[in-house]
Design a protein that fits this description.
86 residues; mainly alpha; 4 helices; 0% strand
Length: 86
């Protein structure tokens, strides 16, 4: 993305909205420590910036689903039980 002077606030709004949307879909992730989540936030913001948000979810469906499933599997792990199944 190429940003003109004074677009910092607009970019921050796009990044915050992207982070909030992906947290709602994928679960709670830390953008500072999870590189996959961070990349999706930046990609979604890029789509917003280019007025193409309607294509983001379809184009990144696999990555979104993987994060969502990873969080779901994390939440159902049973500590100490290696025979747990879904």
């Amino acid at each position: 993305m190429r940003l003109d002077d004074g677009e910092d606030d607009n970019l921050m709004r796009m990044l915050k909205a992207s982070c909030d949307d992906l947290i709602e879909i994928c679960g709670e992730y830390d953008i500072l420590t999870d590189e996959r989540f961070k990349e999706l936030v930046f990609e979604r913001a890029r789509y917003v910036y280019n007025d193409a948000l309607e294509y983001f979810h379809n184009n990144f469906q696999t990555q979104i689903t993987n994060l969502n499933l990873g969080k779901a599997l994390e939440s159902i792990k049973i500590e100490g039980d290696s025979t747990a199944t879904i």
